[in-house]
Amino acid sequence: MRSIDSPSWISRALGFGPISVPPVAVAVTRHELALAVFRRGSDGLELRELQRVPLPEETFGGGALGGPVGNAAALGAAARTLLERVSGRPHHLSVVLPDAWVRGMIVELGELPEQPGLALEILRFRLRRLVPFRIDELRIAATPIERLSGQEEPVRALALLAAEGVCAAIEHAFAAAGARVGQIVGASLARLEGMAAGGRLPGLTAVAAVESEGFTLLFARDGAPVLWRQKTFSGGLSDEDRARLLAAELRLTRTFLAERLGGEALSSALLAAPATVQPFWERVLAEGLGRPVTVLTADHLPLAEVPPAPGLELLAPLAGATCREVTP
Hints:
The protein is α/β, with parallel strands linked by helices. The protein has helices at residues 8-14, 72-84, 116-128, 164-176, 187-196, 239-260, 278-289, 312-323; strands at residues 19-20, 24-28, 32-41, 44-54, 92-97, 102-109, 138-144, 155-163, 180-186, 204-211, 214-221, 224-232, 268-272, 294-295, 325-326. The protein has two domains: 1-200 and 298-328, Nucleotidyltransferase, domain 5 (2-Layer Sandwich), CATH 3.30.420; 201-297, ATPase, nucleotide binding domain (Nucleotidyltransferase, domain 5, 2-Layer Sandwich), CATH 3.30.420. The strands form four sheets. It has a five-stranded mixed beta sheet, with helices on both faces. The longest helix is centred in the last third of the chain and has 22 residues, at 239-260. The two termini are 17 Å apart.
């Protein structure tokens, strides 16, 4: 959400020659920093190194979008320690945030001016009425996506929102440690990039991701997003309440897809979730989508080998972030 503004699927659609980002990515959560270094080989991405550093509990606040930053000094110290542990210390990297810290939504817009600053102001004005956050405190990125039947406005875009204070604090922490953050991306979008690499997602695919703070459900056609749904879990919700929340969202989604995509059948439905809750969410999704759901495995990603513990829950979005491409 910083200097990277054209993911690979939009670059391909526009006919540009994409450039791969550095194969180093850091996952930032409330509890730790985890850095993965990959090597691009003929058989896919090879995990060369994985380092993890815990964060003090007060580093990030418990509010929406991961904020506020409660201990910038602790974040900076953890970033230095993390980079010092890596062989061949990296100077450029990507950052992956939890989905709960990067909210996505589809917006329809009128024709936008060519000047990026003016286009951003129009987007901010539109989002001001749609989101429960102070727009001036957000970092916003948007990418045009496929038009659908029944669309009233000429432009349809995936807008991504993150807390400016959180993004800036992370960038500053790594810059002070000698590494530039080239992109900040949410886990679901990064994971999608990895899954779609090399044409791995033909047709219409549903991808659901469950985290402790909520879930994201996206639909992609040939790897490019066409629909994005995201919900936050309120504190104290039981599994049954969470299942009802997702079931209601799935009913709305299926109605939308039937109207806008002409009832196009899903090619596949995939689930990314912690192992302890996979069976529960697999059942809920299968009932809501009306088709079997497959749990994400290493076969769905451009990895040269099955990753070691802690496995795909951590490494899938990190690998995906290194699959992203930018236009020159």
